[in-house]
Specification:
The structure is a homotetramer. By secondary structure, the first copy, chain A, is of the alpha+beta class. Chain A has three helices and six strands. Helix content of chain A is about 35%, strand content about 40%. Chains C and D meet through helix 1 and strand 6 of C and helix 1 and strand 6 of D.
């Protein structure tokens, strides 16, 4: 059940990052810093080989309120995650699709 | 890749519930209500067949502050989750083990 | 500085509830349960005399995704909060105004 | 009611930052980055003149799990916040006291 366990670990990380960080105040100027903070927090977790987080600048701009900031929403996130578990590599991620923040498995292969 | 996808979906739900609800103020009197609210929110998500959440009363009692409440911590949670994905049933969950809130896959089988 | 301290306590509770619960999956069927869970968690905190939470059903309906649920957003929340601090009563709350989830102080008076 | 409103705004920011970021995975190596990310997100909010966040390294070290990380807890946080509202300056903050993450008002004065 190693392949399933590896995929399970990928799911945990995506669900966790989403619900930890959605709601965080951000602006165009703080996108990079928040992306890095999310990446650092995900990278610490077990079996994470690498993670890349991008926050959609266009969507942030659209959502800015009169005070010049907005809150992080799921559909702003684009994530590429690589999990390494017991000789397996899982590629998974997250991106907006038809207005829904879709999480997906891309590939599982032996290292 | 259906088995892996099914396991991935289980992981998403556990990671999400953890990071959504950890930090919620609770007391001995509100344990049941919070368990139900967590179950209801998880049940709405795609592919969730059922979910059972228990919050450890003993740990809540240990953590109560002088105001008579504490905050939900991962190690207080015991979760049984059933995912149904494309003819497959996944059983997964979460419980404290050696002080760590462990998430685990129990079984994947055809419905 | 009692009046200011009483108002400060009201602010803490509103900021906390917002960032604890925004992002929670909900549907039309789980609105009542989530309102109660939020009220119970706020009521536990120091100096809270009472709290009433309403989640806007119309906005929930508008946001439902293809799976029949959405996530709690700040603008869906309407909150009436009463703080009692050292002989003072503070009335404060939160509601959507021009698309922004506004938190406001209504009244501070002696009990 | 300007002084009370200014204090209310300080409370909102402290309650919000607490419940947004508690639960975030962190290690000794990511403390600085997380402090900065929290400061940046608070600084965006209305009436924030400045904010300084420190995460207690000793407590992080004590809580590290076998994977070398832990989760942000309220008692790890030390925050100094300055709010400017309508000609008033409020100094407020948060620090651990007797095991409880205490939020406090320090001073309100005219600018």
């Amino acid at each position: 059940m190693d392949r399933e366990r590896a995929a399970f670990e990928a799911g945990i990380k995506l669900g966790a990052l989403y619900h930890q960080f959605v709601g965080t105040p951000l602006s165009l100027d703080t996108i990079r810093g928040l992306e890095r903070a999310i990446e650092e927090s995900v990278s610490l977790q077990p079996y994470v080989e690498s993670v890349k987080v991008r926050i959609d600048e266009g969507r942030v701009r659209e959502r800015l309120n009169k005070f010049g900031y907005c809150e992080l929403e799921g559909v702003m996130l684009e994530v590429d995650l690589v999990i390494r578990y017991d000789g397996l590599i899982v590629r998974a991620g997250m991106r907006e699709e038809n207005g829904y923040p879709l999480m997906f498995l891309k590939e599982i292969r032996e290292k």
